Records
---
Amino acid sequence: MHFLRPFSALLLAAAFSLVACAQVAGPAKNGPPSYGPELEGFDYPHPVQRFRFTSQGQPLQMAYMDVKPADGAKANGRTAVLLHGKNFCAATWQGTIAALSQAGYRVIAPDQIGFCKSSKPQRYQFSFQQLTHNTRELLASLGIERAAVIGHSTGGMLAVRYALMHPAQTEQLVLVAPIGLEDWQAEGVPWIGIDQWYERELKTSAEGIRRYEQATYYAGQWKPEYERWVQMLAGLNEGPGQHIVAWNSAKVYDMIFTQPVVHEFGAIDVPTLLIIGHMDTTAIGKDRAPESLKARLGNYAELGKRAAAAIPGARLVEFEQLGHAPQIQDPKAFHEALLDGMKAQAKAR
């Protein structure tokens, strides 16, 4: 595969303009499915709505699901906001949406700008503050003043930033296998530029996704139901929007690596539930770290305890046999822990 090196604005613009002309495809005749740049062709478990707004001088749209309490469930008057991770979408919260809805919550599950069914701008300064602002604007447009904020993986970093910026609007903070419990740059992982991230992202394939997810998300296990999420990512990354998807992904990786939140854990002033899988080994840039450093990065059995000690009053739930996606790997155990933990925190307030 040929990569653009060095990147020029003209070449990038030409590559991205192909997206607008590309035919959005469904399942390909051979190989993995092919989805559009806003994940067209991939079905979500609930109707998708769009919040249209202007940000950084351009019109954007933020896709989201708004799920009311389930039929027969007694509404508890509370709202839960689900923030997805870097290699996840709002749809991957499917089981958690069902569990919270059955428990009486209204559930809002957005796709952040740059991800999944939301806009993929060519020019955008990604920051956790900006994504927090976008999310707060979405909730305000829906008349939601306060919510339990639940973040998974990169969504955990975003949830921390949300709680720091909007403590009065955050009833509870739940961090599910959050990344950012260590500062990889400060630990010594070498920095790479957005252009390099872009090249790496263009190499994304179903095989590579599957191999990584089995090792990291599911602690070496594999079940047929996990394949849906592999195909979702592969179809998006190898579809007609490949270049703009990879470009947005590269900028997000730069945001994650250069904007740590771990140093601000002590300032979190909302009830916090931390759910950790000991078999999780996620660490951004670990593959390019010196061998002497790799061994001590992504040690979540230790990082979870360290984070819980740093966040005032945090409650820690640990799963010794689970990896980076406990809500998918063992949904029954995870959702029991989630609902019990949220209920306990609500009573303690």
---
Amino acid sequence: MYLGIDLGTSGVKAMLIDGDQRVIGSATGQEVATARPHAGWSEQDPADWIRATEEAIAGLRAAHPAELSAVRGIGLSGHMHGATLLDAEDKVLRPCIMWNDTRSHREAASLDADPRFRKITGNIVFPGFTAPKLAWVKNNEPDIFAKVRWVLLPKDFLRVWLTGEHLSEMSDSAGTSWLDTGARKWSAELLAATGLEERQMPGLVEGTDAAGILRPELAARWGLGEGVVVAGGAGDNAASACGMGTVREGAAFVSLGTSGVLFAANASYLPNPESAVHAFCHALPNTWHQMGVILSATDALNWHSRVTGASAADLTKELGDALQAPSGVTFLPYLSGERTPHNDAAIRGAFLGLGHESSRVVLTQAVLEGVSFAIRDSLEALKSAGTKLSRVTAIGGGSRSRYWLKSIATALGLPVDLPADGDFGAAFGAARLGLIAATGADPVAVCTAPVTAETIEPEAALGAAYEGAYQRYRRLYPAVRAAY
């Protein structure tokens, strides 16, 4: 048996699979609270991650005690970029500064102006990345900065608790702005530029490598045997790619979660930071990937739900099943800034083209289209970085909306595949990595794609209307930016 633990933004999910990769069961811990003490801030208490993990494991043990006791490998996944700061005794120094925290936008711009960062990492220094957060701590909390012994990503904080090891892996570390992404190693030069040394970073392994043994006291409490291997694991998107089998050149998925991701696997390192595409290491050795990232996907629909007082499900149900031509209303989904392709932490969302006739249904349609067009922006950015896609697979909570999938297929001009029923997300991908680390199995043979249940084709009759609406969408960003 193999266990995947996924530390998500809102909670922890644990999934148990057998040697044939059949899902035995899953459980979640209670929601992890996010504090927003100031505008643009987003923080979590790492102690809540441990609590939620304990709750998830307890849920699995209650439902599947015999199977849990047979676990031989554990894989970790987690939200990326978070700055989890520990002292020399592994005590947390302050709340974790999260991936969607934008307080360090000035520090990010300063680091990004140093040409070494884009050259070595292959990426823009985004405000959400880890390096500018440490620069902010240095500038604003110098007493805390002076005590920093370890800078850990969120899932790797869990690893310290699980194993006592201070280790990370390539896919997550590529989102720090300190990794030499092509060489797959820390850059002492970039660390020095933020006042840090390599000794303050965790050691690096591949996501498929063994990266510690579960502490005996935890194994005993959970009813596990001795010598349970903990894999290097992956950042959440790379873990989802392992779960989806998106590990070969040309394979791609679109994820409609809190944020939105267009993820493409690459057999070589293809940086193009000017496009605001993320060029990261994959969780598998000698493999990389590119991502276009939008900061508000289902978050945009959830915001619309809160404002209108109707559930997200009811809002999308009102649209019906038949895809409609775009109306004159355009929605810019920049509720917390945007990454690809704009790298703009200050921009905010907008409805444009409103009239007396603009009903709730029209606004809902505009919200879904706005997210679809933002993903199209990512597709264009990937093209400029040398990646061509022929189809994508849809995952995430937003993929339950048939209307939204039709909108995305038509906006991208690509077929969208829906996998057969099953959970192929980050927890499943993490469990696969745990299996590989424990058994030495071939990663590509393990990380296969699920069966496609259905393919949603672009609606050719609406292609011209969608293209016109997308071009209008593209023109609005600079206009709104200038107004701000």
---
Amino acid sequence: MKTVPKDRKLDQSINVLREGYRFLPKRFADLDTDIFETRLLGEKVICLTGENGAKLFYDKEKFQRKGALPKRIEKSLFGENAIQGMDGDPHEHRKLLFMSLMTPEKMDKLGQLTSEQWRKQAEGWKNQKNIVLLEEAKIVLCQAACQWAGVPLKEGEVKKRAELLWAMVDAFGAVGSRHRKGRKARVNAEKWIKELIENIREGKVASEEGSAIYEMAFHRDLDGNHLSTQVAAKELLNVIRPTVAVAAYVAFGALALHDHAEEREKVKEAQGDYIERFAQEIRRLFPFVPFLGARVRKDFMWDGYSFEKDTLVLIDVHGIDHDRRLWERPNQFSPERFKDWKGGLFDFIPQGGGEHYTGHRCPGEWITMEAIKSSLKFLTREIEYEVPSQDLSYSLSRMPSFPKSGFRIEEVEFK
């Protein structure tokens, strides 16, 4: 039996917050291994990277999600007792609820709504000198996601709701005031959506069958019971919250368009499926999810290493998407790398790996792609703008990350 290489520090919790997306890749490189043991919050943790590591991590017979998420993440980002912490038949049944929302027709509708909201939001830019694309994207995506999901929004509350949803996302890698803000936002957001679910069930608010809010409100578990209004609210938030999080990808997409003028022209002309490849490269290159966790379901051996029941295991999401063994020149922006890509389940995992229907790969990948592509089309085909001098760098220590300036534009003209 092999001994798992160890990171000798007593506890690395502080360094996770200090180093962010770099934490795991740095230690895999320093130890020259795809597996190592460390301690986080006083607990033994095994960390994995590489395609084979991802294949192992997404083996449902060996790992479970119950108990893997830190409470601080549940209380800010995902919500307690939501799908991210489920396993087995209950998870697969709940997953079908989410997958029912991801049909091509519904994704087309989301793309149309996103484009419409960009045009509507841009109407107010005509006399503005300082337009921060990240902030605008939060509002656009909140409005589009809520309209698509059937969540009613009053004109004056869109920005407030967008900030509420973003605060939950912004809290996941934070401590102190940023984390407290996210937890407070979670409480307020659940209260808001819970009341809507109750009103829909009581017939006080109309909803369209097939919409996300209708399906969450009337979904039945394996015992034939409706979800509690609290859980239904959390799951609906797990549709619209991550859509607002795509605002970071929109800002990164604008950065890529700015840095690669020749690529911008290809997106503008949409040669073949180039815009699809461009969007995928944004998801691969730029930081989004740093790592994900699971717990060992039962004792087992893998590649000569022993895994004990209940041990927490982390998979290096960001590192795998930048693995030199999987991606040529991984730190270079190159959409063409996806031209002949076959769609591996474990070599490209910006929102998780494995199967969508039965595993824990995020069902919202299609939403992410539609939101990015619609935003790219708007930025390249419907407006022209200037990019003033600003700090366009982004930190791999901050989780989540985005361009420091939020990507400012000015002198917007409509085509």
---
Amino acid sequence: MAETPPAAPLQLLISTGEISGDLQGSWLVKALREEASARNLPLCIHALGGERMEQAGAHLLADTTSLSAIGLWETLPFVVPTLRLQARVNGWIRTVRLDGVVLIDYMGPNVNLGLKLRRMDPDLPISYYIAPQEWAFRMGEGGTTRLIGFSNQILAVFPEEAKFYTACGAVVHWVGHPLMDSTVRRPGRAAARARLNLGEDSKLLLLLPASRSQEMRYLLPSLLEGAAQLQRRHPTLQVIIPAGRQTFAPTIRQQVQNTGLVATVLDAQEAHQRKAELFAAADLALTKSGTVNLELALYDVPQVVGYRLSRPTAWVARHVLNFQIPFISPVNLVLNEPLVPELLQNALTPAAVADHGDALLTSDMARQRVLDGYGRLRSQLGTPGVTRRAARAVLDTLRLSQGTTPASSTVS
């Protein structure tokens, strides 16, 4: 009797961009591989992302982590590289019968990709994981969502996101935020500070200015000078600056020297390896708006959040697009309150950065108010096991190849 040939691997595409998307994508790749193995399900994962997804076991089609900017003029340098990438991806898609797709954040490119894939294959299962924060912002008179037109399911990371898309008619699973998984085994504060050679009375400031080149231009100078002013007020304050990208480190070091700030700049690779101990040891962070705000909150690090776009982009967003959002930091958005200080556009001055940072360093009441808010935030981010729940939801929707009969599992 002839042996039954093994089933061909199912073909899954995951698309994301930026450093945070690559990191969250790598966690999902790992969870998908583990869950597929538990189901005896042959699976091949292709990725538009970065090196972390590749290291997790995905076949990297293209590195999208550097093709990111927010704004109008800021995106112009990426137009030609993005069009070339899209042409390559379009050609590849026509050669592969995909059994499923996962889109992670990365709103503009992923929405375009989702619409294209839906036109090409009306039956293709498409999951959107970590959807754009449409539940929080508005353009003009109403929402801007187009996700439900091509997504079979949305894997929501925030409760309000789940409510928003459910009200729009989408199939939604609230899985929780993946950061809940990454901070489960965070190091203790005392152990982390010991590894960093911090004395009992030493204060550590983390400066986290940029993962995009535009943030280096618009945020870094004000945050650096604010940190320098803080250090002049507190001469023993130690400052560590993890570079968001490997190419950023030389620029940061030069600007640190220009401000007179005494700081240690970590290359991106070392920063990634030591992130947990840095966050566990820190007393304060000066940072940009983004996922890092939630991560700092889960490590109980008080923070001052700054953000600035170019003046033309800010003017168009406000006066032409009528862009409205109550807060810029995910921490404040989730809680719907101004828990952490936000300094936007012209309000982002070195003096304001230093004043807010000083209050969080010296006022027990101010620090405790933030820490209490962080406690409330955790209840809005779900429970550990997020990426495994997301992986189960994705695998449950895959278009199964002939002869493949994996065990089914539903999201819990």
